[in-house]
Design brief:
Helix 2 runs parallel beside helix 6, helix 6 packs across helix 9 and helix 14 packs parallel to helix 17. This protein is an alpha+beta fold and 633 residues long. Strands 3-14-15-11-8-7-4 form a seven-stranded mixed beta sheet, with no helix packed on it. The protein has a seven-stranded antiparallel beta sheet with strand order 5-6-9-10-16-12-13. A five-stranded antiparallel beta sheet has the order 20-18-19-25-23, covered by helices on one side. The chain has 24 helices and 25 strands. It folds into five domains: 71 residues, no CATH class; 88 residues, Death Domain, Fas (Orthogonal Bundle); 192 residues, no CATH class; 159 residues, Chondroitinase Ac, Chain A, domain 3, CATH 2.60.220; 88 residues, no CATH class.
Length: 633
């Protein structure tokens, strides 16, 4: 251990402070700080402390990786992956000139908005340091950052850099399409025209005039929206000005711009602006780079405008109901008083999905008239060469049950199951997992905890609807997989729109559209396997199937029981059982509740003996991963 202490002391000069004596945690700290340079840094330190034997072992790349990472636990692998993501993104951003870098930061907000990823505040994006911008991006998007940057690079017409970035696991299997009604499309096209007109006009201003334009307007625009940039003195950019105006004033942006130009006495630009705005409104004919910005600004502005117009038609009582329900998704909404604050908070947190969430809420408060006018603008993904996509069917009995083999594991490890089948339709007797194949297949799976994923899913408007499964195909190809869920579908309208599948791949979280939903399963065709789990829209509080777990402590003078009410999640049950067993408690086998129970509601637990004490004494429900009550008799 003295050698390791010497190593810790020496590496502190490399701006790495190893505050732990745990060697695995020390490896993680090195990876987080130096990424792909970690091996070189480690070799240099070993040479300085004269451990040439270890330096020699690091001479080959394979030995270096093995030596540095050891057995590579899941945590180390995750840190190494994220370090690699940051390295790739930073190298890519270094190849952009300053103008492209400023444009990239602007387009990042639109990419996140369209993917329903929480937006990055403009205070963070205003940073000129590329390393910190990458850190902010990865904190918001995780490994999905690679796909977000690729999309922005394509918008910037930097295809050379986009092609260097690694592909996501599902990118080749999906194509995106947007179905919009004609009224909304007309609104977007008009805002595209306004955006293009302002860009053409204001780009004739020199740097000093742009600064004067900003000085005149910066005190007139009063808002706190994190997705509408507010310029600082160091940021003089026509693109940002146009974004602020179009997202704030919509179709009145031309009038507001004219007012500022009058104060600047730019009569030549006023004349051009007036002539162009009164002429035929043609769609933008700019190149792909500029057209992407114009379209993205117009799309976001159209969404914001329609939400503001819709909520402004509510009575005060109706608005209070909407705000109260939305505060379950974003607590900050509880303190808002203006419709603009509600709209901005939803758009900042949930992106385009905020339209769907507010639309569903309007139906719940009996304002279907307003809901019908809202255009759901989310991109929908359809599988290429998929069969029977979008169908909703009832369960059938045409599935052949298969018993899995349990791989040898210790009591402290989560069990892994192996399965094999010929061609046909099959269902695992343990997990309820279903699959369709045209050839012999072999795969293994294990149940995983939702802990660590639930918060990210809720930030994107979803909650778990079934167990999370880590699936690996060993041989053959699966044409369709159906993941079990525990939701009572009678309570969920428009099943396909309100169910999704979480796919955790090498490049982060991907929410895939379900291709079919049955009473018990959510299906995907042509699946890519990794961590998969069924999700449902968190706006609804449906009834779900529940299990009751009861544990008691034997050989005591009184009966003390722990009671849990949980969804039928094997990983959660394993976690509860492991914890209770470690405390000496034993399970009492009892049947589940005889009917599905409503989520986010309270339930009473009663004892027939007068001397019994129940903790907590108040009704309890499904809060967090499970609910527990202690009963003493």
């Amino acid at each position: 251990m003295s050698s390791f202490n010497n190593f810790r002391s020496t590496i502190s000069h490399q701006q790495i402070q190893l505050d732990t004596s745990d060697q695995q945690e020390s490896v993680i700290s090195i990876l987080q700080t130096h990424g792909k340079e970690s091996i070189k840094v480690t070799r240099d330190v070993l040479e300085s402390i004269r451990r040439t034997d270890l330096v020699q072992r690091m001479s080959s790349s394979s030995a270096s990786t093995e030596m540095l990472l050891g057995k590579r636990s899941d945590l180390i692998h995750e840190v190494a992956t994220m370090a690699a993501v940051k390295d790739v993104l930073l190298e890519t951003l270094q190849d952009l000139n300053e103008t492209e870098f400023i444009e990239l930061k602007l387009l990042l907000q639109f990419a996140n908005f369209q993917r329903n990823i929480p937006l990055i505040s403009w205070d963070e994006l205003d940073d000129t340091n590329r390393t910190r911008v990458v850190d902010h991006l990865v904190n918001k998007c995780g490994k999905l950052s690679v796909e977000v940057i690729r999309e922005v690079l394509l918008d910037l017409n930097r295809t050379d850099l986009a092609l260097v970035l690694p592909e996501t696991s599902s990118a080749s299997k999906e194509k995106l399409c947007v179905e919009l009604n004609s009224a909304f499309l007309q609104k977007v096209e008009k805002l595209e025209f306004v955006t293009e007109l302002l860009l053409e006009t204001l780009e004739e201003l020199d740097e000093g005039e742009i600064g004067k334009f900003q000085t005149i307007t910066q005190n007139k625009i009063d808002h706190q929206s994190e997705y509408i940039p507010m310029w600082e003195t160091k940021l003089i950019n026509v693109r940002y000005i146009v974004v602020v105006f179009v997202l704030t004033y919509f179709h009145q942006s031309v009038e507001k711009t004219t007012d500022v130009l009058k104060q600047m006495k730019k009569h030549d630009l006023i004349a051009k602006l007036s002539a162009r705005s009164s002429g035929p409104k043609e769609k933008p004919s700019a190149g792909p780079h500029r057209s992407a910005l114009i379209h993205n600004v117009a799309m976001m502005a159209a969404v914001r405008q329609q939400l503001l117009e819709t909520l402004d038609k509510l009575t005060q009582e109706e608005f209070s109901k909407v705000k109260r329900n939305l505060s379950d998704f974003s607590p900050r909404l509880e303190f808002t008083t203006q419709t603009a604050e509600v709209v901005d908070e939803m758009m900042e947190t949930f992106g385009q999905q905020s339209v769907k969430m507010i639309k569903d809420l309007l139906i719940e408060i009996n304002r279907k008239d307003l809901a019908e006018n809202l255009q759901d603008t989310e991109e929908t993904s359809t599988s290429v060469d998929s069969v029977d996509c979008g169908s909703v069917e009832q369960d059938s009995s045409s599935w052949t049950k298969v018993d899995p083999e349990l791989d040898g594991t210790s009591p402290d490890e989560d069990p892994t199951y192996s399965l094999q089948s010929a061609a046909g339709h099959f269902e695992c007797s343990v997990s309820g997992l279903r699959w369709v194949c045209r050839e012999k297949v072999g795969f293994r799976y294990r149940f995983c905890s939702w802990v660590g994923h639930m918060e990210r899913m809720e930030s994107r408007g979803y909650r778990p609807a079934g167990p999370l499964l880590d699936i690996s195909v060993l041989t053959g190809k699966v044409m369709e997989v159906q993941l079990p869920h525990w939701v009572c579908t009678d309570d969920v309208p428009e099943l396909l729109k309100n169910f999704a599948v979480l796919h955790v791949g090498d490049c982060g979280d991907v929410l895939e559209k379900a291709t079919r939903v049955t009473k018990t399963h959510v299906g995907l065709t042509e699946p890519v396997f990794s961590l998969l789990g069924a999700l449902r829209n968190l706006f609804f509080s449906p009834r779900i199937i529940c299990n009751t777990l009861i544990y008691y402590q034997p050989k005591t003078s009184y009966l003390k029981m722990h009671v849990y009410l949980i969804p039928p999640d094997p990983a959660l049950k394993q976690s509860v059982h492991r914890r209770e067993s470690s405390k000496g408690y034993e399970e009492i086998m009892k049947p589940r509740p005889d009917k599905p129970l409503k989520m986010d509601r309270g339930f009473s637990l009663q004892a027939t003996v007068e001397t019994a004490r129940i903790q907590p004494p108040v009704p309890f429900g499904l809060e967090g991963p499970h609910t527990q009550a202690n009963i003493s008799l």
